[in-house]
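request received
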Amino acid sequence: MNKLRIRTVLAVGIISAFVVLVALAFASDQPVPADSQQYLARALGETGASNRVAGIYLNYRLLDTLLELLVFSVAVLGVRHYLQQSEGMSLPALSESEVLQTAVSFLSPLALLLCAFFAIFGHISPGGGFAAGVIAASGLLYVAIAHGMKATETRLNPWRLALAEKAILLLLLAFVLVPAAFGKIPLSDLLPKGTPGQLLSGGSILIYNILIAMKVFIGAWLVIAAFAQHRGEL
Amino acid sequence: MPLILLPLLRFVFAILSISFARARKPFTIVSHLVDAALLSQLVLTLGRGIPELITVGGTPAGIGISMIGDQIGLTFAVLAWVLSVAVSAYTWRDQLRPYFFLLLNLLIGACYALSFTTDLFNAYLLFELSTLVSFLLVGYQRRPRQIWASLHYLVLSSLGMSIFLLGIGVVYAHCGCLDLAVLKTMLRASPGEPWMLLAGSLLVAGIAVKAGVFIFSLWLPSAHARAMPAVSALLSGLVIKMGVVGLFRLADVFPIHLTLIVLGAITGILGIIYAFNTHDIKKLLAFHTLSQIGYMLIGFGAATEVARLGALSYVVAHGLFKSLLFLTIGEAAARAGGSHLNTLIENRQNIPRGTRIALFIGVLGIIGLPLLAGFDAKAILEDGLPTMALRLIVILVSVGTVASFAKLSPVLFSRSTCRTDRSRILAYAWLGGGIILFWPLSLLLVSPAISLHALSAPHIVEALAVIAVGGSLYLLIRKKRFQLPSEIFRLETSPLIILVGFFLVYALMALGQ
Amino acid sequence: MAAIVAFILFGLGILVLVLRRDLVIKLLALGLVNAASILFLVSIGDRPGARAPIQGPGEMGILADPLPQALVLSAIVVNFAILALALVFVMILVERYHSTDSTRIEQEMAREIDEEETPCL
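response:
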């Protein structure tokens, strides 16, 4: 009991000291925002996307986005690999419900439509590939809840989906390597910038958004499917 | 362009290796050859005087992500290549799923990119990628102890990277950019800014969790000891060096030289104290990794040109002999039925001859026998150290290293009854050759004058004396058993110790200004 | 202001990580720590009276700094990946030891026959 007390006091002490030190050190010096305007000032002109954030993470810092996709893929692969080797449970499925099925019949197409909108218009309005992919995966999840996992899996084979995921990743990597064939540094943007605000603007950002949306959709769905399979049914 | 092609092609190859599993072996050979070609192109460019510098995507420097192929970067990249070849050879005949090779290649690709990148947030993402992949590799066999060790690793690593992210935030708030080169010019223009202290200590503390510094990397002994031999070799030989490259690059920007020296001394000495007390040989090797990082940090902290060269040479040398040690001990433990010292000694005739010889070379390397890798690198390092105190610390750690490896002698001197597998002999020969030929290679790649001076009589005498003293120290106190605190390696206390380490780094940076 | 809140949340997360014994709670605390660092990053880009940085070429108005938001996108995905994989590993441990208490798991592991005695490749 005493040891626990000592540890708690020590923990609270050390952590509070850390928070106080960092907060004081940060607050005592006023940050200078002047230089940070450079991203804001240059993003529209150099990337052609009116969504400045998309211009940054899909043009200036495309390598970071690529790495993040790799991290996501590793997570998906890891989860599937470990769950496949685990002994599953066999919990009963949710009972069939007409309310669910009716609701899903208009909710899930809506979700897929939203996914398409966010992916295609990601460079002009909020959204982007990642949000789009997650929305589509949830839309598919509604379908699986309403109609059962088995029915969904007969329509969408997990093995083919896994193959498609790797194919999209390879396509993305090939796309960023293409400039190397023209003598430019990989990850450059070769497509025309266009007028900001139009659909066909921002160079390759549109293509990246669509590819990322597909990739995240398949990846998130595979994780959900892996958990559902481990559980027995949805 | 090779700078960005190296990691990208490696990532492509990683995905191909899980899609076309049957063609993996020819693919592996081709990918290693391609990497060798790209690396030699970079070395030639560096040899001509101006290191290759690109900004990924052709965006203007300072606003995009920059990569530089300088001396530091190429050292670590070449080490990554050498170790990836060794591990490929070692696992050539093993029954491993394609998923394993995907992870392996992603890790190597991440290490290539980490060697060259000068952007802080890019480094953060690469560190997180390497953390996740290492975490999965450590837990590959799903044994409870491996899972537990890798969970501990993941939690502490994530905590460290969150601290690093805080540092990135502070840097951006005051600088408006994340590129180390731009940061360097800004800090040079107005040195001694107060926010630099906070940012620098957050960044250093965050990277130190991954760099194998004793106070911060308390996950290391369990994680490196419990993983598969090939994984341990890669983690100890390569991945830990990625934290070190981060510290080296930060040292050019922030005034952390005193910090590096103190951290190096702490990790060097504490590492060997714990190593002396351990009888599980894999854990012994892991503690030695912690200790040897001390040499590299002291070398860079000393800030002279020769000491930096010594630190970089030691990075390569340590990568060579630590991975060789892990690979050979791994195979020996598999044959003998366990990695505990007593088990190894009892069943030492089961250890194949080639493995035993390779193990012997590895041990000779790490204890610093003259003419081998460890001796050369240490000699260059000591030549560059400005004060006697630093040299004494290095000698002390060397003596401790010898003393704690002496307990392996019964295993090394014995007769074997079986032979080693051919692909593993290739891996051992590759690494062992590197250890033996280190000095001639350093004549070519490092400056000839420095390498020749390293081979002088005082250094040889000192190295032999260290071996003698270490051996006698072992004989004197081998009967004693020390009671060292093992509480610190638990998940409950290690985050607190990391925070204490942050305070230490903050204080040292304040002193060092 | 938001930065100070972020630091406090960061500290709270580490506190819970250290003090609570349940593995799932520890992971939630880790998620809190990561979220706090992300909050800090976003708060850096704040300007007084700023709007989201999405604006056509003709429009006027102060925009928030877009770079921290772009960084945070990547950081969120990375943290999701970490939590997901850590939870899978916790699942494996729970399957094995039938408990999420970290102290009990450590004791059970120490009691078992040392698995390092069996060859591992």
